[in-house]
Design brief:
Layout lengths: L3 H30 L3 H27 L19 H28 L3 H31 L3 H11 L11
Bound molecules: MU-OXO-diiron.
C-alpha cells in the first residue's frame, strides 16, 4: 500500500510527465517553424516517450488502487533562441526531472515501499539515458557552431529517430 504522502507525490509526478510531453510538443513546433524538420521529428518522439512514461505511472497508481485525480497541465512556451537553445532547455528540464525522481525515490525508501521504489528506479535509469542522449546532441551542435551545412546534417540525422515504447524495455 502506498502512503498518502507518496500517493500525492506520485500523482504530481504523473502530471510532470504529461507536462514534459507538452514541453516537447512545443519544442517540436518551434523546430518545425524554424525549418529544422528532423529535430521537430525528434521532439515529437520525445513527446511520445513522455506520454508512455505518464501511462506507466498511471497504470501503477491504478494497480495500487490509488484515488487518481488529474490536476491541470501547466502551459508551455514555444519560443526558443536557436537549435542549441532548445536542446539546452531540454537537458535542463530532464535534469530537473531527475532531481524530482531522486526525491521520490528517497520518499519511497523512507516508507520502506519496495514496489514503488522499484518502479521509480525504472524512471531513474531512463533519466540517465535521456540526459546522455541530449548531451550528445548538444555536443554535436556546439561542434558545428553556426555552420549551416553542419546544422543541416545534424537535423537530418535527428529526422531518422523512430518511436519505440520505452516501457517495453
Ligand atoms: Fe519522463 Fe524525460 O522524463
Amino acid at each position: 500500500m502506498v502512503s498518502k504522502e507518496l500517493e500525492k507525490a506520485l500523482i504530481e509526478q504523473l502530471n510532470k510527465e504529461y507536462h514534459s510531453a507538452y514541453i516537447y510538443l512545443g519544442m517540436s513546433a518551434y523546430c518545425s517553424k524554424e525549418g529544422f524538420n528532423g529535430s521537430s521529428n525528434w521532439f515529437l518522439i520525445q513527446y511520445q516517450e513522455e506520454v508512455a512514461h505518464g501511462m506507466k505511472m498511471f497504470k501503477y497508481l491504478e494497480d495500487q488502487d490509488v484515488d487518481i485525480n488529474l490536476p491541470p497541465i501547466q502551459g508551455v512556451k514555444v519560443d526558443y533562441n536557436s537549435l542549441l537553445d532548445v536542446f539546452k532547455k531540454s537537458l535542463a528540464h530532464e535534469q530537473k526531472m531527475t532531481k524530482n525522481l531522486n526525491i521520490l525515490s528517497d520518499l519511497a525508501m523512507k516508507d520502506k515501499d519496495h514496489a514503488t521504489y522499484n518502479l521509480l528506479q525504472w524512471y531513474v535509469t531512463e533519466q540517465v539515458e535521456e540526459e546522455a542522449t541530449v548531451k550528445a546532441i548538444i555536443d554535436h551542435i556546439k561542434l558545428v557552431g553556426d555552420n549551416g551545412y553542419g546544422l543541416y546534417t545534424i537535423d537530418k540525422e535527428l529526422g531518422s529517430r523512430t518511436f519505440t515504447d520505452p516501457t517495453t524495455k
